[in-house]
C-alpha cells in the first residue's frame, strides 16, 4: 500500500537535478523559516501566555513573560479537574481504539479472505459510511443514545466513535489482509490450525502495521472529538478534555493566563502522542486518502 | 466449492492455482482447502468476526442517518414518539429562512476560499520542501503541528489572540499600525476572513503533507529527462509535476470541499451559539445545532441535517462524476483523456 512505499522512497531519493550543492537555495530556507514561524507562533503564544500574569497580559497581550510565573500551571496541575478530564479522555480514547481495532479487524478479515458473495456488499456498506459524517447523524444519534440510556456515560461516546471510525479502518485494513499470502494460511491449516486460530496467531501479528495506523487515527480522532461529547455529556464529571477546556475557558474568562495554562497542558498529550507516532500518522493519512 | 461434507476424503483433487501443484502434488495429505470445513462453521465464523462490526456500524451510523430522514417530517420536541406529522413544512421553513441562506452562503464562501487559498500555497510549499534541504524532516513535522491540535484548543487560542485586546491588535499597535486594528471576531466585514485565516493555518499542513506524498511518487527520471532536454525548472514543474500531481490535488480538493460543508467545531468554539450568525460566520452545522438541539426542535434539526447531507452528497457525486472520474482511468493517462 502507498503508506509504506512512499515512506521508503522519501529519504534518499531527493531531487538533485536542480539543487545547487548540499544546502539548497537560501530563499527556500527563508520561506520555510517564515512558514514554520507562522505555524508555531500561536502555539508559543498559548504556552508562553500561561507563564505570565493577567496584569502582564492586560498590559501587552503579545509580550513575553517577565518575570516568568509558574503559578498558573501549578494551579491547573494541582486542581484535580485537569487530571479527571485527562482520565476521561484516556478512557474514551483507549476504548474507541480497542473497539475499532477488534471490530475492524474482524470485519476486514471476512471481507478480505472469506469466499462468499455478500462480501462485496459488505465492503460497499462500510465504504458508504464515508459519506455520512457525524454532523449529519448527530441529532438522531443523540436521541438513540438517550433511548439506550447511555447519555452521560463514556460508553455512549465510545460506541458511536467506533462506528464512525470503521469505514476508514476497513478501507485501510482490507488491502493489508489481502496481502497475506495464501501459502501461510494453507501451511497453518495443514498444521491443524483452524481458521480462527490462524486469524488470532498469524493474521493479527502480520497486519500490525495497518492496525497501528488505524489505531492511531482512531485515538487522535477520539482525543480531539468535540461535537459528540458536546451533545451527549452534560455531567461535567465526565467531560473529556476538549469539553473541559471550553468549560474552563468560559468559567475563568477573566483569568486569561490560567486559561492559557490549561489549554497548553491539554495540548501536551496530543503533541507527545504525535511526535511519537508522527511517521505513522502522516503515512496513515496519506495512505487513507490515496488507498 | 460446495462439496458435501461426507465426500471430503474421496473427492478428486480440485484444479489448483498455478504454481501450487508442482511442489505439493506428491503428498497425499494435501487435500483441497476448505472442503473439510462445514458450511455452517464458515457462516458462524463470518458472523463472529464481522457481526459485531456490522451491528455497531449499522446501529450508530446507518440507523441514525435513516432516522434523521424520518424525524425531519415531524414537528417534535424530542420526547415520546413523534406524532405531529408536518410533511415538507420543515424543509420549506429551512430553505426560506434568511438565516439558513446566510449560513449556506458562508459555507460556500469557505469552500471556495479554502480551495483558492490553500491549494496553490500547499503546492508551492510542497515543491519547496521537496528540494534538497537541511532539516526538511523537522520542518515537515512542525508545519503539521496545527493539524494535530484539537479544534477546541485552536479555537480558544485564536479567539484570545483575535480579541480586541488580544495579541494581534497588540502587535499591530506596537508595530505602529494602529490603523489596522480591528474587532477581528465581531466585525461582520472582517470576521469571516479571520475564520479563513484560522482555517488555513490549521489545515494547510495536511494539504502540504498530501502534496509531498504525491510529489514523491513522481519518478525522478522524468525530471532528469526534462533537464537533459533543456527544460527550465519552472517548465518542468508546469508540464511534468502539476499534471502528475493531479490525482493528489483532486483528492485533497474533495476532502477540503466535504470538510468545508460540514464545518462546525471551530466556528462553534470561537463564536459560540449566538454570535456566529451576527458576525457572519455561521455555517449550516452551527445553524442545525442552534435551531435544533438548543431550541429543542428536534424534528427541525433533523431536517437541517438532511439538507446538509443532500447538499454534500450532490456536490460529492457531481465532483466524483466529473473530476475524480479521470483518476480511475489511471493517473498517468488522466491528463490526456
Keywords:
heterodimer; A: 291 residues; mainly alpha; MetI-like fold; 2 domains; 14 helices; disordered N terminus; B: 337 residues; two-stranded antiparallel ribbon; 68% helix
What does this structure look like?
The complex is a heterodimer of chains A (291) and B (337). Chain A is mostly helical and 291 residues long. Chain A has 2 domains: 46 residues, no CATH class; 210 residues, MetI-like (MetI-like fold), CATH 1.10.3720.10. Helix content of chain A is 75%, strand content 0%. Chain A is globular, with a radius of gyration of 24 Å. The termini of chain A are close together. The N terminus of chain A is likely disordered. Chain B folds into 2 domains: 37 residues, no CATH class; 239 residues, MetI-like (MetI-like fold, Orthogonal Bundle). Chain B has a two-stranded antiparallel sheet with strand order 1-2. Chain B is built from 14 helices and 2 strands. Chain B is mainly α. In chain B, helix 2 packs across helix 14. Classes of the chains: A mainly alpha (291), B mainly alpha (337). At the A-B interface, helix 1, helix 2, helix 5, helix 6 and helix 7 of A face helix 2, helix 4, helix 5, helix 6 and helix 7 of B. Chain B: It is a multi-pass membrane protein. Chain B: Its main location: membrane. Chain B: It comes from Isoptericola halotolerans. Chain B: Keywords: Cell membrane, Membrane, Transmembrane, Transmembrane helix, Transport. Chain B: This is Carbohydrate ABC transporter membrane protein 1 (CUT1 family). Chain A: It is found in: Cell membrane.
Amino acid at each position: 500500500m502507498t503508506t509504506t512505499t512512499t515512506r521508503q522512497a522519501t529519504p534518499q531519493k531527493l531531487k538533485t537535478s536542480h539543487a545547487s550543492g548540499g544546502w539548497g537555495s537560501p530563499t527556500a530556507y527563508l520561506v520555510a523559516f517564515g512558514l514554520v514561524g507562522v505555524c508555531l507562533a500561536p502555539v508559543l503564544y498559548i504556552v508562553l501566555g500561561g507563564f505570565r500574569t493577567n496584569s502582564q497580559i492586560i498590559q501587552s497581550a503579545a509580550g513575553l513573560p517577565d518575570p516568568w510565573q509558574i503559578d498558573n500551571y501549578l494551579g491547573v496541575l494541582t486542581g484535580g479537574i485537569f487530571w479527571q478530564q485527562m482520565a476521561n479522555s484516556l478512557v474514551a480514547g483507549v476504548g474507541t481504539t480497542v473497539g475499532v481495532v477488534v471490530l475492524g479487524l474482524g470485519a476486514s478479515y471476512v471481507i478480505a479472505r472469506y469466499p462468499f458473495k455478500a462480501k462485496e456488499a459488505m465492503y460497499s456498506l462500510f465504504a458508504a459510511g464515508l459519506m455520512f459524517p457525524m454532523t449529519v447523524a448527530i441529532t438522531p444519534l443523540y436521541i438513540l443514545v438517550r433511548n439506550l440510556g447511555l447519555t452521560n456515560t463514556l460508553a455512549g461516546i465510545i460506541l458511536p466513535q467506533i462506528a464512525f471510525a470503521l469505514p476508514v479502518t476497513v478501507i485501510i485494513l482490507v488491502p493489508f489482509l489481502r496481502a497475506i499470502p495464501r501459502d501461510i494460511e494453507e501451511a497453518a491449516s495443514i498444521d491443524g490450525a483452524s481458521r480462527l486460530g490462524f486469524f488470532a496467531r498469524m493474521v493479527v501479528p502480520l497486519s500490525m502495521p495497518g492496525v497501528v495506523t488505524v489505531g492511531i487515527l482512531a485515538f487522535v480522532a477520539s482525543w480531539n472529538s468535540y461535537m459528540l461529547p458536546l451533545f451527549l455529556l452534560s455531567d461535567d464529571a465526565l467531560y473529556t478534555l476538549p469539553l473541559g477546556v471550553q468549560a474552563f475557558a468560559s468559567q475563568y474568562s477573566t483569568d486569561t493566563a490560567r486559561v492559557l495554562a490549561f489549554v497548553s497542558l491539554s495540548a501536551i498529550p496530543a503533541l507527545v502522542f504525535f511526535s511519537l507516532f508522527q511517521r505513522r500518522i502522516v503515512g496513515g493519512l496519506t495512505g487513507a486518502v490515496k488507498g | 466449492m460446495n462439496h458435501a461434507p461426507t465426500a471430503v476424503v474421496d473427492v478428486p483433487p480440485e484444479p489448483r492455482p498455478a504454481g501450487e501443484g508442482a511442489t505439493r502434488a506428491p503428498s497425499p495429505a494435501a487435500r483441497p482447502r476448505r472442503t473439510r470445513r462445514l458450511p455452517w462453521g464458515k457462516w458462524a465464523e463470518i458472523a463472529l468476526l464481522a457481526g459485531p462490526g456490522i451491528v455497531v456500524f449499522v446501529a450508530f451510523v446507518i440507523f441514525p442517518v435513516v432516522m434523521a430522514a424520518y424525524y425531519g417530517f415531524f414537528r417534535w420536541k424530542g420526547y415520546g414518539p413523534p406524532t405531529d406529522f408536518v410533511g415538507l413544512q420543515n424543509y420549506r421553513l429551512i430553505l426560506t429562512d434568511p438565516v439558513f441562506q446566510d449560513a449556506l452562503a458562508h459555507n460556500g464562501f469557505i469552500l471556495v476560499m479554502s480551495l483558492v487559498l490553500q491549494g496553490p500555497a500547499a503546492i508551492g510549499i510542497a515543491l519547496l520542501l521537496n528540494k534538497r534541504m537541511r532539516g526538511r524532516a523537522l520542518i515537515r513535522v512542525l508545519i503539521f503541528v496545527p493539524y494535530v491540535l484539537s479544534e477546541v484548543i485552536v479555537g480558544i487560542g485564536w479567539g484570545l489572540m483575535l480579541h480586541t485586546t488580544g495579541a494581534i491588535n497588540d502587535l499591530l499597535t506596537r508595530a505602529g499600525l494602529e490603523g489596522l486594528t480591528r474587532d477581528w471576531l465581531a466585525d461582520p466585514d472582517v470576521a469571516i476572513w479571520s475564520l479563513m485565516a484560522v482555517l488555513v493555518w490549521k489545515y494547510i499542513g495536511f494539504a502540504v503533507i498530501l502534496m509531498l506524498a504525491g510529489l514523491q511518487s513522481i519518478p525522478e527520471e522524468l525530471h532528469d529527462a526534462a533537464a537533459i532536454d533543456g527544460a527550465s525548472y519552472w517548465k518542468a514543474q508546469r508540464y511534468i509535476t502539476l499534471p502528475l500531481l493531479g490525482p493528489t490535488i483532486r483528492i485533497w480538493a474533495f476532502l477540503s470541499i466535504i470538510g468545508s460543508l460540514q464545518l462546525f467545531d471551530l466556528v462553534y468554539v470561537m463564536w459560540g451559539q449566538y454570535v456566529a450568525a451576527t458576525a457572519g460566520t455561521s455555517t449550516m452545522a452551527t445553524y442545525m445545532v442552534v435551531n435544533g438541539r438548543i431550541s429543542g426542535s428536534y424534528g427541525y434539526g433533523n431536517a437541517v441535517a438532511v439538507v446538509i447531507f443532500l447538499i454534500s452528497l450532490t456536490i460529492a457525486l457531481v465532483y466524483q462524476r466529473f473530476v475524480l472520474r479521470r483518476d480511475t482511468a489511471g493517473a498517468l493517462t488522466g491528463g490526456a483523456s
